[in-house]
Amino acid sequence: MTVIGTGYLGATHAACMAELGHEVRGVDVDEAKIERLRSGDVPFYEPGLEEILRRNLDNGRLRFSTDYREVAQFAHVHFLAVGTPQQRGSYAADLTYVRSVISDLVPLLEGSHLILGKSTVPVGTAAELQDLADLLAKENTKVEIAWNPEFLRESHGVEDTITPDRIVLGLRAGSEAEETVREVYASQLEANTPFIVTDRQTAELVKVAANSFLATKISFINAVAELCEISGADVKALADAIGYDDRIGRKFLGAGLGFGGGCLPKDIRAFMARAGELGADQALSFLREVDTINMRQRDRVVQFAREESGGNLLGTRITVLGAAFKPNSDDVRDSPALNVAGQLSLGGAAVSVYDPQAMANARREFPTLVYTDTVEGALEGAELVILATEWKIFRELDPERVAGLVAKPVIIDARNVLDARAWQDAGWRVRALGRSL
Ligand code: UGA
User: Fold this and answer.
1) Which DSSP letter does residue 349 get?
2) In order of start, what are the domains of the chain with their CATH numbers?
3) Whole-prediction pTM value?
4) Which whole number is the average pLDDT over 74-85?
């Protein structure tokens, strides 16, 4: 099989498919990325991936190429795993890369081929791509487009691919591709992974609906957190209490700085844009509120920082712990942590940032912030500390030791992960979203 697009999703999928015993070719137009992957170097931080990549390069099951001609001859099953970012100046998804894979690959194919879409796309895309493929396919060549959405979380990519919690497959009417897909995922299906075979539009919608639900859950708890703060209640205890109801569940009720990354924010926007195109914009207008609540968390943390700086950020030395959009990742796309650091810096604060993995990406995105090599270095002389991404090393900081490094022991726990009492006992003033400490 081939995996076209070798970003977080594609590189992980390619390596894991090889790990499961398949012969895999990973393809990308980015020469530099392919060169790094060929040499066993994962171009991003994903725990456990490098080991699998190297093992399967060594055993020869996994290879990488930039040449569509080569991969067109290599396999009959092709995974489409290129990005669908938000369009400039619009909420809609940009399908340029998805479409160009079809127009570059399909004319080179011969015989019978199955293209399995993994990218997150607006409903109706698979049908549109099928029309394009039918137009471009050689005579006597059959190309079928099916949708097989991906649910992997960055930082858990390997386990989510090898042992997914479900597999969804969307097929066109009369398709015989299910058997092929059963072979691809034989080991997962043997382990009784739920397998939902449906039409293509349902499969496309499953993905955006799942991400929108997760985003809604986070914004729900963040909205309630605002109420908790005003009324003197505690959002963590509240989330624990409602989370015991298994219809609700405790996961994704982590109140704080909110969601970011390359998926949730752009997916809810693309979902709204598609609903509008289909004449159902009212159905999803609540997602605009989900988005607004989420963005407001960043402003609220900046507001807390302003209050702690005596009403004016000018000159305040602030340390922001975390730059990645979530722990165990180096991804800074739409990162709440970096957004806050940037806003504080633009407001005149002297901001110092530390992240265990995302420094290089953060520096590229926001070159004007000060990046420090160690967490101690970042904390030295700080008048305010903001915990913005809940990396383990930040959760485990010793409040007494840190108090000896900073100029003023004031911390905003923007992810609600610290033992507030222990920090207070060590002399810290602690603020958190949704809690009146
Ligand atoms: C998300 C989905 O969880 C995956 O299932 C999906 O496959 C993926 O998008 C995708 O579409 O490719 P991911 O973006 O890796 O995965 O990150 P999540 O673990 O979902 O976290 C998203 C954001 O929500 C992070 O910024 C995290 O800090 C935040 N979050 C999460 C909260 O603010 N509170 C919570 O309780 C949980």
Assistant:
1) -
2) 2-193 (3.40.50.720), 199-437 (3.40.50.720)
3) 0.96
4) 96
